[in-house]
Design a protein that fits this description.
Elements: E1 8-11, H1 17-25, E2 29-32, H2 39-45, E3 51-54, H3 62-67, E4 73-76, H4 86-91, E5 95-97, H5 104-119, H6 122-130, E6 148-152, H7 156-167, E7 171-175, E8 187-188, H8 192-198, E9 201-204, H9 218-223, E10 228-232, H10 241-250, E11 253-258, E12 282-284, H11 293-313, E13 333-341, H12 346-356, E14 360-369, E15 372-380, H13 385-392, E16 397-402
Parallel strand pairs: 1-2, 1-3, 3-4, 4-5, 6-7, 6-9, 7-8, 9-10, 10-11, 11-12
Antiparallel strand pairs: 13-15, 13-16, 14-15
Helix pairs in contact: 1-11, 5-7
Amino acid sequence: MSDQAKMRVLLLESIHPDAVSRLEAAGYEVESVRNALDESELIARIPGVHLLGIRSKTKVTAKVLEAADSLVAIGAFCIGTDQIDLTAASANGVAVFNAPFSNTRSVVELAIAEIISMTRRLTEKNTLMHAGVWDKSADGAHEIRGRRLGIVGYGNIGTQLSVLAENLGMYVSFYDTADKLALSNAHRCASLEELLETSDVVTLHVDGRPGNAGFFGAEQFKRMREGALFLNLSRGIVVDHVALRQALESGHVAGAAVDVFPTEPKGRGDEFVSELRGLPNVILTPHIGGSTEEAQSDIGGFVANKLTAFVEEGNTTLSVNLPGVALPEQAGQSRIGHVHINTPGVLAQVNSILAEHHVNVEGQLLSTRGEYGYLITDIGGGFSSEVLDQLRAMEQTVRLRVLS
């Protein structure tokens, strides 16, 4: 972008300092806020902001994007992007980036730790010890070796958990609606019901798309084996917590570990309200699956690099919502990025406008994804404002950016 020095960045939810350093090194003006913002607060803050960085609590709705008069890109400094209206972002030519791999190890290690803790009943023993009760007994305590782990959602986290669990001696089953290759000796279940009926531990690793709301409720808990354990480190909306409490109180589910909740406090120190509070066989953590220093540092650098590459080069590699395009830069050339509706003839129309004004194309790359296309064009020599006006006036144009 030609006015990079004026780029304003708003980072919410205590994004790691490595992201701030990277963006400031690029010459951007960065404001970092500790907590999430609700819709009305974000609408008030978003005008004049070019880059927005969020984590999982801030919702970027269509109304927020409508109020964003300068927004170029959004960085989700986490795995999930269901908190962003991706359809509205695409319609406004706003690129969205996330960190699909950076914190998977942290989530997997927490899951393993919680499985061991519940299987050995460590939380109950710990509570008794703090109350002064010495309860040295092996009753109800087991090894995880030889037990079956059922993974619902076999993506980046599920597959890594599968491998580590097998290395610890567990048998692994998984269920996924997509056709996924089983790693090592993992068994693919033909249905969710098969997984629930055969697993000693069930762990959820699904996304938070609206269709997954209430995905796991009373019927699914009833299907689980008597005395099985349950974990959710994915999204809070996918589990019916009232049904989970009932399953725990009845003893049908022996224990649970929950890291995500349908409604979460906006910031540290705020009161946490949940149906699951007060149950002795439940581990509750404040959405910290990916919250290790290593993961947050990696996420900060990764997403910040994606944002700067898009601003400076138009690079959309690994964009969540726009077609992936990366064209090597060449010195002494101007670059135009063109987000457009994916219809036949757009490239020919763009080149016709450029040829009409005797503009020489030095490099060009086009990619499409569903409804939208993204074109990068490198131009040798100068061009008039009339060229840009005509490109913007094209019926298919969503957004045109002059990068250099």
